[in-house]
Amino acid sequence: MNAVTKTLTVDLGERSYPIYIGPGLLGDPRIYREHIPGRQVMVVTNETVAPLYLERVCAALGGYQLARVILPDGERYKSLEIWQRIITALLEARFDRQCTVLALGGGVVGDMAGFAAASYQRGVNFVQVPTTLLSQVDSSVGGKTGVNHPLGKNMIGAFYQPRCVIADTASLDTLDDRQLSAGLAEVIKYGLIDDLPFFEWLERNMEPLLAREADALSHAIERSCLDKARVVAADELESGRRALLNLGHTFGHAIETGMGYGEWLHGEAVAVGMCMAADLSRRLGWFDMDAQARVVDLVARARLPVAPPPDLDGARLLELMAVDKKVQQGRMRLVLMQGMGHSLVTDQFDSGLLRATLSGYGRNDVC
Ligand code: NAD
Ligand code: GLY
């Protein structure tokens, strides 16, 4: 590890684990040796990330018995069918219960590899090496794993924590600008949930982040992981507070599912979802016009969309929003905002105002 590496902890008792953040970490053999017991490692990656980083990771894993599975790239491949390829690769390599599944890639690879680790022989070791901004600030931390169903996003999966998260900030150099912005959506989310000072820092530092200034990116990743780790430590299995991490996601998942997985990036859909949550919060009287404008402005400055695609009408969005893991006894629950930097999970909203939000983006078909 080098001098600029930061180490955080996700505090889950005996299942606590570190998050390492710094440049060059994915090629550092010491972290792997410390956190990978046994001899067998299955590296799961995809066809885009493999040519960039697979050999470097494999070189750092010298001494282990290695196997690799290279998946097709894209959200539409986050499916049971592709997940089964990982299980098949583990069986074909004759890997035992002491093996480790290592996810090298963005959130799609991480979620699928994690679900394979959770299921193979009822659970084997798991290590996350996230290579997108989104996966470094969100999906690699906290143990949510799974795949999509054609009828609903992330509807099949398990909570399964990794042994460590290795966030190599230098891997972001090869990420395209659209993907960087998608990651910034989840970063903004933490400010809105319960970290107003971070939101204000983002308002001051959006340009350095877009310019990929190393200090700014490193701070944003560290602060996001700290915020997420705190919530996960308090409510690992999402019986309460953890649902706040889904700010913007009920609207966003509806957009992703409605458009067909992969058309809109997850972060883009979440960005619009946060704007819609701000709109509904304002209609409920919980958020003023100025606060709503600050949310929309920051999202736009991150070069993210602020309105849903015109192809999805409000009625369809409403229908899709009903397929959500936060629905309880048939009632939709949403993460909404009560003032800047304060969010809550609630089913106490006037459904007429939700319809007004959905139709407020240029459509009048759901009122
Ligand atoms: P992704 O995994 O599809 O990666 C985005 C693109 O970047 C892909 O084309 C990928 O191949 C490419 N890529 C990855 N690393 C790269 C690199 N270093 N250089 C160049 N290209 C690179 O998308 P994502 O935004 O990382 O993750 C989105 C997924 O994460 C969604 O499926 C979402 O549901 C899930 N997610 C999960 C959680 C969780 O808690 N488990 C949280 C948020 C999001
Ligand atoms: N991204 C939502 C969660 O991890 O709970």
TrEMBL record:
> What InterPro entries does the annotation carry?
Dehydroquinate_synthase, DHQ_synth_AroB, DHQ_synth_fam, DHQS/DOIS_N, DHQS_C
Q: In which pathway does it act?
A: Metabolic intermediate biosynthesis; chorismate biosynthesis; chorismate from D-erythrose 4-phosphate and phosphoenolpyruvate: step 2/7
Instruction: Outline the extent of the 3-dehydroquinate synthase C-terminal domain.
Output: 183-327
Coiled coil regions, renumbered to chain: none
Q: Which reaction does it catalyse?
A: 7-phospho-2-dehydro-3-deoxy-D-arabino-heptonate = 3-dehydroquinate + phosphate
Where does the source fall among the domains of life?
Bacteria
- Classify the main location: cytoplasm
Which terms are listed as keywords in the entry?
Answer: Amino-acid biosynthesis, Aromatic amino acid biosynthesis, Cobalt, Cytoplasm, Lyase, Metal-binding, NAD, Nucleotide-binding, Zinc
Against Pfam families, the record matches this protein to: DHQ_synthase (PF01761), DHQS_C (PF24621)
Q: Where in the cell is it found?
A: Cytoplasm
Protein's UniProt keywords contain Nucleotide-binding: yes
* Binding locations of Zn(2+): 186, 249, 266
Single GO MF annotation: nucleotide binding
Cofactor binding summary note:
Binds 1 divalent metal cation per subunit. Can use either Co(2+) or Zn(2+).
Offer a single GO CC term for the protein. Answer: cytoplasm
Per the record's keyword annotation, is Repeat included, yes or no?
no
Q: Which residues hold NAD(+)?
A: 73-78, 107-111, 131-132, 144, 153
The UniProt entry's GO biological process terms, in alphabetical order, are: amino acid biosynthetic process; aromatic amino acid family biosynthetic process; chorismate biosynthetic process
Domain named 3-dehydroquinate synthase N-terminal: residues: 69-181
| Role according to the record | Catalyzes the conversion of 3-deoxy-D-arabino-heptulosonate 7-phosphate (DAHP) to dehydroquinate (DHQ).
- Family named by the database record: Belongs to the sugar phosphate cyclases superfamily. Dehydroquinate synthase family.
HAMAP family, A to Z: DHQ_synthase (MF_00110)
User: Which protein, by its recorded name, is this?
Assistant: 3-dehydroquinate synthase
The taxonomy runs: Bacteria, Pseudomonadati, Pseudomonadota, Gammaproteobacteria, Chromatiales
Q: Identify the gene encoding this protein.
A: aroB
